[in-house]
Structures are given as C-alpha cells and as structure tokens.
C-alpha cells in the first residue's frame, strides 16, 4: 500500500518524452528497485507525440507543449513528476505550471554523481548531443567537476542492441575513467538504463542511472512533503 499524504495514494509519474516504447520499458525496469511497500507508486508513460529520440535542441523544444499538456491533465492524480530525458526538456516550464515537485534526470543524475566522486564523466549517445549537455553543466555551475563527456555514437532507437551498446559503453566509460580522470560516470540517456549495473561491475567505479537518481529524489520529496514553491 502506498504512503498516505494529501492524496489518497501517492503516485509518481515518470515521463519518457520520446515515443520509443522500448525506452519506456527500460525506464520502468530501472524503477523496479525503488518500488517498495509503503512507498509511492511509480508509473512510467510514453509521450506518444514525442519523436523517436530526443537528439536535437529542436526535439527538446518541440516536446515542451506536449509535456505541459500531459502534466496538466495528470496533476491531480500524481504527487510528483519526473522528466526521463537527459536534456531535461521543459523542466523549468513545468515547474512554473505546477506546485508538485518536477525533477529532471540530468540535473538529478549530475547532482547524485557529485556525491559519489570528485570528477564525473558522461556517456552520451551522439556527439551532437554534447554541446547541449555542456551548456546545461555550465548552467548548473559544476563545470570544474566535469571530467569529460564522450559519445557511444548510437541513436536512441539503436540502444536496444544490447551487445553493440554495451561494448561501446564499456569502451567510452574506460576512456572517461583512464584518460579523462572520471571517478564516477553518468549515463547520458534514459535508454541506457538496463546497462547500469553491468557497466559498473565492468569498470569498477560508480555508474549513475539518472532516472533512478531522479525517482529516488522524487520519493524523498513526496515522503517529506517538500513542494517546489
């Protein structure tokens, strides 16, 4: 039974802003360890109107109206919302639109990494994503803690190819660790969720799956009744 608060049953809505159902299934599996008796229920949904992957700034900007609509329709049903895309699309717009907690996986993943190591590295999907991510790191004011970011060179829809994806993530993760000096890694796409533990075991340093980081924070916000404003 979920914990009680202002709602009859606390629920957290985790939104995959792209339309790829395989990514949502991976996100749902990543949330499994955070589902517990007495804790908030965790629902994962796909934004049907989204593109197959959030890979450009235009993709990021284009999903914001759809996210606002989805959150608006579900505000009374949920105690918190998690935007499960590493670009945190619409994060600040959504925080303006609801008094419920809204968490972005990039912000939460990076902040979690800062508690696990001195220098964090990010495994990106595509090289063209990196400039966008670096702007966000700068906005968060944590540039000096970033060891580096490197891409695996796969699009979101290709991440379901387990062998190819894991091999590339191991190679890129090792470069971030050995060449760039990262002592903790952040997975730079929600579609990578299933590879977190095997990657951590292979590389021997902490690996943060950012959706797990965001949902863990959302659980704390709900249980402690910390509203955004």
Account of the protein in words:
- With 229 residues, this protein is α/β, with parallel strands linked by helices.
- Helix content is 43%, strand content 16%.
- The protein has helices at residues 21-31, 57-62, 64-74, 91-97, 105-114, 127-140, 162-178, 196-203, 210-224, and strands at 11-16, 41-46, 80-83, 102-104, 120-124, 146-151, 184-187, 207-208.
- The strands form two sheets. Strands 2-1-3-4 form a four-stranded parallel beta sheet, sandwiched between helices. A four-stranded parallel beta sheet has the order 6-5-7-8, with helices on both faces.
- Strand 5 (120-124), helix 6 and strand 6 (146-151) form a beta-alpha-beta unit.
- Helix 5 crosses helix 9 (210-224).
- The longest helix is centred in the last third of the chain and has 17 residues, at 162-178.
- The two termini are 28 Å apart.
Q: Tell me the name of the CATH class of the largest domain.
A: Alpha Beta
Q: What percent of the residues sit in helical stretches (DSSP H or I)?
A: 40-55%
CATH architecture of the largest domain: 3-Layer(aba) Sandwich
Rg: 17 Å
How many strand units?
Answer: 8
**Arithmetic mean of pLDDT:** 92
Strand order of the largest sheet: 2-1-3-4
Beta-strand percent range? 15-25%
Distance between the amino and carboxyl termini: 28 Å
- Helix and strand content put the structural class at alpha/beta
Which descriptor suits the 3D outline? globular
Number of domain units: 2
Low-confidence stretches: 1-8
Major beta-sheet overview? 4 strands, parallel
Query: The CATH topology of the largest domain, please?
Result: Rossmann fold
Order of helices and strands: EHEHHEHEHEHEHEHEH
**What count of helical segments does DSSP give?**
9
């Amino acid at each position: 039974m979920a914990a009680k608060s202002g709602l009859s049953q606390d629920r957290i809505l985790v939104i995959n802003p792209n339309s790829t159902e395989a990514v949502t299934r991976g996100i749902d599996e990543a949330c499994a360890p955070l589902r517990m008796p007495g804790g908030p229920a965790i629902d994962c949904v796909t934004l049907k109107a989204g593109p197959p992957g959030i890979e450009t700034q235009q993709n990021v900007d284009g999903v914001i109206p759809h996210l606002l609509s989805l959150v608006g329709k579900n505000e009374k049903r949920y105690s918190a919302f998690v935007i499960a895309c590493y670009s945190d699309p619409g994060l600040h717009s959504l925080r303006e639109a609801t008094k419920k907690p809204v968490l972005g996986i990039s912000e939460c993943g990076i902040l979690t990494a800062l508690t696990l190591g001195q220098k964090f590295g990010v495994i990106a999907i595509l090289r063209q994503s990196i400039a966008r991510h670096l702007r966000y790191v700068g906005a968060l004011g944590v540039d000096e803690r970033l060891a580096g970011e490197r891409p695996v060179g796969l699009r979101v829809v290709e991440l379901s190819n387990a062998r190819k994806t894991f091999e590339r993530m191991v190679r890129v993760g090792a470069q971030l660790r050995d060449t760039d000096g990262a002592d903790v890694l952040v997975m730079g796409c929600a579609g990578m969720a299933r590879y977190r533990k095997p990657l951590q075991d292979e590389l021997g340093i902490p690996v943060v799956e950012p959706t797990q980081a965001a949902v863990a924070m959302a659980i704390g916000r709900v249980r402690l009744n910390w509203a955004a404003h």
